[in-house]
Amino acid sequence: MSLKTKHRGMVWGMYVEPDGRRLGVGKLLLNVIVAHAKTEVEDLTLTVASQNEPAINLYRRFGFVEYGLDPRALKVDGVYIDEVLMRLSLELGPKHPTPTSIPVAPDNS
């Protein structure tokens, strides 16, 4: 792990068997993952197949936001699948100003 990226964690390969879907298993897994990540990292990232709406909606409910799309990231049986890149900030407050929070001096001209 690089010192430059040790503030970031990644959810990799989360999968719920079909019999466990719609029973809260994914929510339970993500609760444990996020709780542990809060003790270790500032940001949590993941990718999810763009057509997997149930998973995307679950991640959104946890506060993950989309920040990009990786076109043709996967190829399954000759079919390309895009992946949505998502991020969850685990910081209590922003350490660096964002474009929407940079104070602007009044124009007194």
The helix fraction, in percent, is 10-25%
- The helix count comes to 2
Query: If you average the pLDDT, what whole number results?
Result: 85
Shape: globular
- Low-confidence sequence ranges: 96-102
CATH superfamily: Gcn5-related N-acetyltransferase (GNAT)
Q: Kindly give the count of domains.
A: 1
CATH architecture: 3-Layer(aba) Sandwich
Biggest sheet strand order reads: 1-2-4-3
- Category by helix and strand content: alpha+beta
Task: Describe the secondary-structure layout.
Layout: E1 8-10, H1 25-38, E2 43-49, H2 53-61, E3 65-76, E4 79-89
Parallel strand pairs: 1-2
Antiparallel strand pairs: 2-4, 3-4
Q: Quick summary of this structure?
A:
The protein is of the alpha+beta class.
Which terms summarize this structure?
Aminopeptidase; 4-stranded mixed β-sheet; 2 helices; globular
Protein model, in words:
- The chain is of the alpha+beta class and 109 residues long.
- It has a single domain (8-89), classed as Aminopeptidase, CATH 3.40.630.30.
- Helices cover 21% and strands 30% of the residues.
- It is built from two helices and four strands.
- The chain has helices at residues 25-38, 53-61, and strands spanning 8-10, 43-49, 65-76, 79-89.
- Strands 1-2-4-3 form a four-stranded mixed β-sheet, with helices on one face.
- β1 (8-10), α1 (25-38) and β2 (43-49) form a beta-alpha-beta unit.
- The radius of gyration is 17 Å and the shape is globular.
